[in-house]
Amino acid sequence: MVPEWFWDVLEATRPRLSALEAWLGSQPREVLEEFALAQLEAAEALADFAEGVIVDGDGWSEDSTEDLCLWVVGQGRAFWQRVVTGELGLDEAARAYLGRTPPLPEGTVAWDGVVADPEHRGYQSSAVIVHGVYRTRFGEDLAERLLDA
Known about the structure:
Helices cover 54% and strands 3% of the residues. It is mostly helical and 149 residues long. Strands 1-2 form a two-stranded antiparallel sheet. Helix 1 (4-13) crosses helix 2, helix 2 (17-25) runs parallel beside helix 7 (129-138) and helix 4 packs across helix 6 (90-97). The chain is globular. The relative contact order is 0.18.
C-alpha cells in the first residue's frame, strides 16, 4: 500500500506548501518519482477515475475525479483513511473539496498554497507540486517519465 514515509512527509510539511516544495527540492530524482507514485497509488485506492463520482446528481469526469482523489490524499492520512474505508463517502469528500461542508478532520489545517520558487506557480497544491519541482530540477515532465518507467 502507500509507504509510511509518504504520509510522514505530508504531515511534517503541512500546512506550508513551501516546506513540501523545499523537501522535494532536496531529494534525489528517485525519491520524487517514488513520492509521485505513492500519491497516485493512494488516490487510485479511492476510486476508479474513469467511473467518476456522482455529487448531488452530477457525474464528474475522469479528470475531475482524479483531481478530487489527489486532493483527498493531500489532506493527509486521517482524511484519506476515512474515505478509503468508506467512513466518509467520496461524494461527501467532493462536497468538502467544493467547500460545501467542513473539509478537514478536526485539528487539520489546509495547505497555504504558497511556493518559494516563482517557477512553481501553477503547481500550488500538494497534489501537483512534485511535478513542478521535478520539471524545474530535471527539465523533464514527471508524468511522462513515470509512463516510460
